[in-house]
Amino acid sequence: MNKKALKNKISSTSKISEKNKIMDEIRAKYAYEILNRLADEDVKISKRIEELAFEYQREVNPDDVADGVFHDLDNLEVEDVWDKSGGTRHGYVDPYELASEMFEDVLEPYLEELRKFQKLSMDEESKLHCMGILKGIYKFEIDATTEFKDWSGDDPHVYFIQVLEEWEKGNKDLNNLDEMHLFIKKNCTKWSQNYLKSK
């Protein structure tokens, strides 16, 4: 490759990197306003935005989400805790902390989906998705019989509260709060009194 071609390649790579940085910034701060302006300026772009939005808008079934969360948590292997904890060449790894990290890693994709709904102002979908996550965690606490559960300690309850609080922070529809409280009272009875008492 000659010097000119190499220089062009480096320049092209840095432009892509710069574009990615700009896109990340847009995602974080201005996406909604930019989409609205583009939609107002061009009918074709407006139509395309609408098409893409419909790809994100799918029916959210809390029971399906709960089944997914429960299944993923129930499939965590206690052997992974045993194999990766204790004394290592990098120091001591606490098995309970490792189990907690594994628990959190399972929930993260579900939380990402929840955040996506909230960024798109899809309040109904985010509410239903959150209900599913909570129900799945609660089901794990009540129904799981795996050895991993013995190492998860208070994690189900701790993450239940964290998920709920994260959803509440992003929720813009006050009616959803009442629905969520009723849902918890009906579906997560063991924890509902403690949680609702603090509200």
Notes on the structure:
It is a single chain. This protein folds into two domains: 1-56; 59-197, no CATH class. Strands 1-2 form a two-stranded antiparallel ribbon. It has helices at 3-29, 31-41, 43-56, 62-74, 78-84, 95-119, 123-143, 147-152, 155-170, 174-187, 189-197; strands at residues 86-88, 91-93. It has 199 residues and is mainly alpha-helical. The protein is built from eleven helices and two strands, in the order αααααββαααααα. It is globular.
Question: What key attributes describe this structure?
Answer:
single chain; 199 residues; mainly alpha; 11 helices
Q: What is the rounded Rg?
A: 22 Å
What's the order of the H and E elements?
A: HHHHHEEHHHHHH
Number of DSSP E strands = 2
Classify the helix fraction into a percent range. Answer: over 70%
Q: Quick check: average pLDDT? A: 80
Apparent shape: globular
Indicate the low-confidence ranges by residue numbers: none
**How would a crystallographer describe the biggest sheet?**
2 strands, antiparallel
Short description:
With 199 residues, the protein is mainly α.
Q: Which secondary structure elements does this structure contain, and how are they paired or packed?
A:
Blueprint: H1 3-29, H2 31-41, H3 43-56, H4 62-74, H5 78-84, E1 86-88, E2 91-93, H6 95-119, H7 123-143, H8 147-152, H9 155-170, H10 174-187, H11 189-197
Antiparallel strand pairs: 1-2
